């Protein structure tokens, strides 16, 4: 079991978001931990600064949520992804335009996020969120 620290972001009396530090492209970013997101998603604008467009695959799935019912989506095979001491290699993520989230964060004077950690990771690695201790616990290996 790997314990990962979380930060609790107060959205000015409009709820809370859990943030976690992730490492992608050998750089540290913040990501939102979202139990309601079915899949882990990365921001297209941020990803395109680090990879070629030919690495993104157009997805035939229609993405909903994030204030829209129809958003162009892509998938990307993330070669190396680190959340705390938890490492994933060759993990497929969705890639969407997350500018609306980052615009909202900018209005709160909060740094932008690279993405959203979703239910795919939380369910596959038996994620446990402890709000009191502000930790996420993940198993080292995928459940069978």
TrEMBL record:
Name of the protein: Aspartyl protease
A single GO molecular function term of this UniProt record: aspartic-type endopeptidase activity
Keyword match Plastid: no
Pfam family, one: Asp_protease_2
UniProt keyword Kinase, yes or no: no
Alphabetical keyword list: Hydrolase, Protease
PROSITE patterns registered for this protein in UniProt: ASP_PROT_RETROV (PS50175), ASP_PROTEASE (PS00141)
SUPFAM superfamilies assigned: Acid proteases
Domain Peptidase A2 residues, every copy: 29-67
BP terms from Gene Ontology: proteolysis
InterPro entries, sorted: Aspartic_peptidase_AS, Peptidase_A2_cat, Peptidase_aspartic_dom_sf, Retropepsin-like_bacterial
Originating species: Olivibacter domesticus
Lineage: Bacteria, Pseudomonadati, Bacteroidota, Sphingobacteriia, Sphingobacteriales
